[in-house]
Amino acid sequence: MRRKASLILLALAVFFTALSPLTRWYAFPRLAKIPAGQYQDMVLEAKNATLLDYGTMRARKVPKVTIVQTLKGNVEAAEKIEKTAGRDVVVWDGLSYIQGPDGKMVSKVPERYIFDAHTQEPVHATGEMVDGDPVRREGIEFKWPFLTEKRDYAYFDAQARVTAPIHYKGTRTFRGLEVYYFEQTIPWTQVRMPRTMPVQGITPETVAKTGTTRWYTTVRKFWVEPLTGAPVRGEEIHQEELRGGTLLGGREKVTAFAGHVKMREDYIEHTVDLVKSNRTVILLMTSYLPWGFLTLGVLLLSLSLYLEARGRRPADPAPARSTDPEPVTA
């Protein structure tokens, strides 16, 4: 009976020991993915910013500029791309809507971002664009991969339509979370005018005819929770200028926008709470279950060996019989 129990325990020990690396290295990469239909929004603000008044073509100080970013998962488009891509795909239809202190639109820039649901690597397919212009992204955008590493990444800049390194600058603590801090600098670069302008009749084509060009630079900062790859805080020191041409009335350049853009406090709190919940699931797959299975396997193996040893132990010798003749009675 002991030998049979020992074999059962040994089989269970092998099963749970093998399950430990399978959970971490096989199941997790396949189960951890971004939902195709996910919707999220984010509000950022630049207080005491500089903004161009297109009516007078003069820069002025304003109390606040607001940027509303939305990302909406397009399930139908993702399913079509998956048929040819041969992998799980997420399609995010994004919109950056910028409004001045009076609530009126300054500009709006739509995007379509297509990426691998598991690794967050870009997937190139028809429809990938920024503000109606086809692009071919390299590197990440919006979200880091699960289990973000302490290294530099390639990050796509939608304004300049270029990919540049975003540098790992160290580990920090933010709202009780250990986060990785990343920073990217885009030097002054000539960029396209937005297709949607705040003044009727002003279009990228009409501006181009005047010879005026748009230039942009930014310092981009992210605090990323490494398990989920989600930024819990984001900032940009953002500057835009219009340069040359007849539109400026002989001036060399004028500031179109300048400000320190930050996530609004209520959205930071919501993001941190969401990330704390999601990181528990990631820890379950990458740490708790693998180490739990391994520990259970070792315990079952030890118990199996103990029972096997008990089963093989020789039995106690029987007491020796007396050789003296028994007394005979009448």
Give a verbal description of the structure.
29% of the residues lie in helices and 39% in strands. It is α+β, with helices and mostly antiparallel strands. The protein has 2 domains: 2-22 and 285-312; 32-263. A 12-stranded antiparallel beta sheet has the order 6-5-4-3-2-1-12-11-10-9-8-7. Strand 8 (162-174) and strand 9 (177-191) form a beta hairpin. Helix 1 runs antiparallel to helix 4 (265-312).
What is the spatial order of strands in the main beta sheet? 6-5-4-3-2-1-12-11-10-9-8-7
| General shape | elongated
* Integer average pLDDT: 90
Spatial extent as radius of gyration = 32 Å
How would you sum up the major sheet? 12 strands, antiparallel
**Structural class category:** alpha+beta
Number of strands: 12
> Share of helix among residues?
25-40%
Task: Break the fold down into its secondary structure elements and pairings.
Blueprint: H1 2-31, E1 39-53, E2 58-73, H2 75-85, E3 89-99, E4 105-116, E5 129-130, E6 133-134, E7 153-157, E8 162-174, E9 177-191, H3 204-210, E10 213-225, E11 230-243, E12 253-263, H4 265-312
Antiparallel strand pairs: 1-2, 1-12, 2-3, 3-4, 4-5, 5-6, 7-8, 8-9, 9-10, 10-11, 11-12
Key terms for this structure?
single chain; 330 residues; alpha+beta; 2 domains; 12-stranded antiparallel β-sheet
Question: Could you write a compact summary of the structure shown?
Answer:
This protein is of the alpha+beta class and 330 residues long.
